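In this supplementary section we document a worked example of the pipeline. Step one takes a protein sequence of length 221 as its only input; no multiple sequence alignment statistics are reported here. Step two produces a three-dimensional model, which step three serialises into structure tokens for compact storage. The input and output of this example are shown verbatim.
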Amino acid sequence: MTLNMLVFVGSTRDSAPPRPARLGLRVGRACADRLEQAGHDVMLIDPLEVELPVVFKPHFAYPRGRAPEALEQLAERIDAADAYVMVSPEYNHSMSPALAHLLNHFGSSLFAFKPSAIVTYSAGQWGGARAAVAMRTFLAELGCLPVSAMIHVPKAQEALDEDGGFNAAVDASGWTGYLDRTFLQLDWWATAARDGRQRRDPETLTPAFRTDPSERNAPSD
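The serialised model returned by step three reads:
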């Protein structure tokens, strides 16, 4: 069954180090390619191509339909998606600030009741694994709970070429099997969640937080 998936590249760094630059784009392309080969409708979201407002103001803080065009378009894509793949390097044992900044422009109501997959990478040996720990909490709060399997890509410049293909020196079949372990989980949960949303609107059970944090407050008396 075809699913609508978004792959978020979590870096705006377009200069070295790391060398070569934009390793995250290679990883994002590899993920998008693997999901497309599985028959899914995939869009790669590169934050360098999203024109965010200079002064931070989240999409939900604008009057309906009055947000900047870039925010409106991405909000529509997030809302229409069945699942998300979040690709991030590691900064200070945490996720990419560029990815967090982009995602923080959108309310959890757009992501809610859909799964996500965590993909991290590095130019060194750890593959950004420590960033994944922080990402679990962040994505859970955003509403798109991550599946249990994760993908970590150490020495991404050695594993992948600029187009996201596997370099001749690596075991391509081993890598595709490794990616598939996570993406098949994502497929299963996304299909189950979509079926569940079609049977019963989850917002009738737990209304979404849309405009004011007080909508999630505990009773005051």
